[in-house]
Fold these 3 entries.
Entry 1:
Amino acid sequence: MVLQAIKYTPASSAGAATLNILDQLLLPHQSLYIPISSCEDAFDAIKQMKVRGAPAIAIVAALALAVECTRTNISSRSAAEARDQIIERLGYVKKSRPTAVNLSDAVNKLSNVVTKAASSDVADGQAVVHKYIAAAERMLIDDVSDNKAIGAHGAKWIAEHTAAGQSKTRNAAQELKILTHCNTGSLATAGYGTALGVIRSLREAGLLTHAFCSETRPYNQGSRLTAYELVHDQIPATLVTDSMAASLLAREGTNVAAIVVGADRVAANGDTANKIGTYSLAVLARHHGVKFLVAAPRTTIDLGTPSGEAIVIEERDQQEVTRIKGPQIGSNGDLREPATISTAAMGINVWNPAFDVTPADLIDGVITEVGVVEKQNGVFNFEPLFASMTETHRESHPSTVGGM
Ligand SMILES: CSC[C@@H](O)[C@@H](O)C(=O)COP(=O)(O)O
């Protein structure tokens, strides 16, 4: 059974479209799908991280508005009114989380779609809504195929560019292990995953011998979500805390072919914002001579942000650091909403940035759905990747800028 974070059913004669998401706050103890029927539902679910991961939050925001369109009378309004209402609702949901560019990229793209649809002399509200829903649904479909392509490109690159990969393809009894951080799998995307997609792809090719996932403090996306996906897929894997990574690399040597991570925003120069702790892993990778790769669709590359300095880093509640969360067991053995207990001294100050920025210098390659980009003369150039993009995405891209 394939893990699915997002379940969407288009509108039909039976009724309005529906959207349900797997509540990731309850994982790995409980699999509960919750309905998302409006932009307010999506905003809260994204903010509280019931859904998280750069591609997944963009898709949930887009589809929540598609559902809202099929549940309200927006199609009965004029084309201009429908356009304005859709753009206003997109602007609202865009404010839920600032760092992942996929959300603002999707908002820009969809705003352009409805602006173009409404500009036709014969357009009415229904035509504008129809175009919006088709574009939002397309994002769900495209994300899975993009992830599979990322997986294939990443696996090929690792097989060709690492000592472990080259030995493995010669059928030597060599280990090929990958370390990953945070959760970038089916739970962070429409399916398959980015960095975890590379791990899945290596496994399908018979090359991967072992995966390591870091706990990813303070929110534990690694131990709760990536570990869950690896166990689910029966991929041989070991969980380590973030502070064990240096010892792991020292012990494993070149058995670890690469550290592969996802991204929330890749600036034009390659500086990459991703889950806090990514930067430390990149420094460790350089020290140990291990390749460091970022796996992300082109929607995560932000040519409008020149470098990492311009990326807005979300800071979250201090309780995510001072408290840990676990399931509560009811008197009859049922699982209840997780409860938190304090693990820190009362009154201590806390800094809780959700992401950090890894300098481009420490990144060996960015794996996208159209190939792996490496630095030429020490510089990343992502421009050529966008030459083959669909018209809709190209339209959106120049206006994609850092921050919200
Ligand atoms: C394919 S997901 C890529 C990134 O979004 C992921 O690595 C990450 O940092 C997620 O952070 P989160 O705070 O859990 O949304």
Entry 2:
Amino acid sequence: MVPPQNPPAEIPSLMDGPVDTLVIWNSHAGRVQEADEVRRQLEAEPGTRLITPEHSRDAEAKVRTACQQGVRRVIAAGGDGTINSVINGMADAADDVVFGVLPLGTANDYCASLDVPDDLDAALDLIRHGTACRLDVAELHTASRSTRFANIATGGNSHRVTESITSEQKQTWGAMCYLISGLSVLADLRSFETSVTWDDGSTSILPVWNLIVANGQTSAGRIRIAPNAKLNDGLLDVVVIEEGSVMDIAALTGRYLFDEYIQSGKVLYRQAKSIEVRSQPVIKFSIDGDLVDEEPIRFRVVPGALQTIVGPEAVCDV
Ligand SMILES: Nc1ncnc2c1ncn2[C@@H]1O[C@H](COP(=O)(O)OP(=O)(O)OP(=O)(O)O)[C@@H](O)[C@H]1O
């Protein structure tokens, strides 16, 4: 990665101050069993407080309080679900509070875009010595709720893949569980008559199999679903897979095929600052297993929302 446009922020040292760093440790995350040693190291860092909330809403509340009390950085130790709980808790944090990730999740798709290494020692090293860039987050709004997400929301048939995966399957199969579950959904694909209103006011009406709203590039176990997505371009990448052929079906589960398929132009791929979606029947959207089934549903990007620790090959616009 070429150096970022904005000069990288200095990351507060773990050695600074009495309550410097809050770590949200998700003991339900897929790889948490491998992480005892890293946990010991983090707990021994001066100025670091590690907590293990039982639910994402507890985590969000704890992060919000810590930010109000002046914490200087917050680390999500978990997968994409943990990351979302932390970034929601950081929504009103001061501009200079730094966000980082220790990838304890099953797939950790957002970390692929951040270029946070899977190896936990290397990831801890990045937290200690890496640089931070101001990155976008995505926001979802319906009449009854608003929430932020870091990576990707998937609607249509694809949400049924993540919905059907249990934590036991994640522990047993790792990222492979997404492929196994994807194959089981193929027998029963549904079409959704969908209207997408874009930020320029135009509307597309389409028979949709899947609709993906992406901030990061990969989903469902590192499938590169939004290859043009950049983490600080101030845009969401919208990928619409229309009802189609057997090739479309293969594209839903084929890791490499999907890349080729997107590039073949058979998929509607567009970037926007915001979109509004309505459909018949209602498309349920999943944000890492958190289900939203209310319409209309509006997505928008929050440009430069979070000072985030990134690796050298992060997919940032420079
Ligand atoms: N901050 C949190 N603290 C405790 N539990 C959480 C938190 N965030 C999410 N959870 C719960 O833990 C489960 C697993 O979380 P997470 O998504 O972070 O890991 P994963 O599913 O193993 O990884 P990935 O989503 O990257 O494949 C979630 O489905 C949710 O029930």
Entry 3:
Amino acid sequence: MNSKEISVLDLKNITRSYTHGRGKSRIEHTVLHNLNMQIRAGEIFCLVGPNGAGKTTTVKIAGTLLAPDSGSVGVAGVDAVKDPRKAREHMALLLGGENGFYRNVSAYDNLQYFADLAGVPYVGREKSIQDALESVNLADKAQQRVQTFSRGMWQRLHIARALINHAQLVLLDEPTMGLDPESARHVRSLIQGMQAEGTAILMTTHEMSEVERLADTVAVIREGRIIARGTVDELATSQNIHHMSVYSCSSGNLGGLCGVDGAEDYDSDSLYALDGVQWYEAVKTHGLWTVTIAWSGFSASSAQASAEKTLSDYGLQLLGRREPSLEEVYLSILHNGVSNGVSR
Ligand SMILES: Nc1ncnc2c1ncn2[C@@H]1O[C@H](COP(=O)(O)OP(=O)(O)OP(=O)(O)O)[C@@H](O)[C@H]1O
């Protein structure tokens, strides 16, 4: 078997609940339901989903910080539930935020400590720490205490730690959150560098442009269940969006679709009644509405003309048509589910 085919991370039938309250008011809330996920060497797997969907919980379970209630976690062939310590030798975990290092200690000494923990051989250790610090542009900050680091520097130091122990699996929870565009770009290029070395990467993000750039596989999680999975192209195809069209409307009440002059108050049923409308979004800025409609195709060739005529009667002027972005595909998945069941 080709080494790229072997799963470095193998989550099988993972279920996890949290409990709230005590005694009679104790409530159990299941946040992951029979979750399955396999990630191969050299694969970037992006987990996306709304707030509270279960992304961080998944990363924590993969990273052995949380145990699943049921199911199995395999990391580089190690049973991570039975032997979390051994599994951790194969992985690096970046949970975001400023934790995971000794704040009062220099970047260099932190890396030396973690290299020691990871069993990096003494001979050559100094060089590999220096090399890792150079690759993440922190060589000149090596002797600085980590508590003085900015968020971007913390993120890069976490990646340096992953580089030193040549982790087979890297888990990244929102690795570019809060970073300026240049730092985010740098972190993305470091992620791609690790991928090129054959590292399996699980990352969560809310940045769809990041997913478009990095992901080999995308999974959309909602309420603890993976509802779609595939390449970016497969997900786009699964939504069967024929095209997107964008309209403007200067009428304050959206051509009468709004009862009151307010963005929250438009009558969604009228637009959904039109043949071919899969979903739409209406946004009002400086008194001007912009309406974006995802069309799923039309039942008859005359239907498009009829729908456009109705929109024009509402005062909506067509600005143009285009392909859907990944963000729109994602919104479509959350709205409709998956029409042709993309998964692998
Ligand atoms: N320690 C905890 N105790 C109780 N409930 C928790 C705990 N951690 C998470 N949850 C709940 O589990 C669910 C999933 O949370 P999780 O942090 O995994 O979501 P997420 O997809 O990472 O969200 P976000 O995009 O906001 O980071 C949420 O309903 C959350 O409130």
